[in-house]
Amino acid sequence: MLKLSVLRPKPSQRTVAKVETKTMKHDNQFGEVVYQYTEEQAIEDGILFDLSQVNSEWKRGVINIVTVNAMVSLQCLKEDKVTGGDKLNVPNLLDVLNQSVQIIKKGKPDHFYSGKIENADGGKVKVFLQQNSSGQFTLMLPEDY
């Protein structure tokens, strides 16, 4: 479980985005499933980050899960050497989420999107957005896919 120190955004930095999603169709193209690793298990193991941990209202958003790898790479989460936990940068996270929602809005309705977003130091980072079991999206880096 992640320990978080949260940096709250200023009210002027808060925005809301609404996007329609469609239900993901599961085609069994690889044969019988040998093992399944649930989102809940991945959240417990610290692989995925559930955005409702920051704000319970975010569970209704377009993107509800982000890989921890993406959180670190996109400068939304970093180690807090003082507390020994992780420090969440909410303004950076909001910026990343807003840019990601724009990728979804620009594309045709689908269960998978990819695009580039700008991180906090101006670099462009390729991201994937995959519809998950809740019908919302998981934000990840290509190496997380």
Write the layout of secondary structure elements.
Elements: E1 4-7, H1 39-44, E2 48-50, E3 63-67, H2 68-73, E4 77-79, E5 86-89, H3 90-106, E6 112-118, E7 124-131, E8 137-140
Parallel strand pairs: 1-5, 3-8
Antiparallel strand pairs: 2-3, 4-5, 6-7, 7-8
Commentary on this structure:
Strand 6 and strand 7 (124-131) form a beta hairpin. The protein is 20% helix and 26% strand. The chain has a five-stranded mixed β-sheet with strand order 2-3-8-7-6. Mean pLDDT is 83; it is low at 1-8 and 10-24. The protein is of the alpha/beta class and 145 residues long. It is built from three helices and eight strands, in the order E-H-E-E-H-E-E-H-E-E-E. It has one domain.
Task: Report the biggest beta sheet as strand number plus sense, adding barrel if it closes.
Answer: 5 strands, mixed
End-to-end separation in angstroms reads: 22 Å
> What's the number of helices?
3
**Fraction of residues in helices?**
10-25%
Global shape = globular
Q: Strand sequence of the main sheet, in spatial order? A: 2-3-8-7-6
Structural class: alpha/beta
Mean of the pLDDT scores?
Answer: 83
Stretches with pLDDT under 50, minimum 5 residues? 1-8, 10-24
Query: What is the domain total for the residues?
Result: 1
Give me the Rg, rounded.
Answer: 15 Å
Q: Got a strand count?
A: 8
Write the element-wise H/E pattern from the N-terminal end onward.
Answer: EHEEHEEHEEE
Q: How large is the share of residues in beta strands?
A: 25-35%
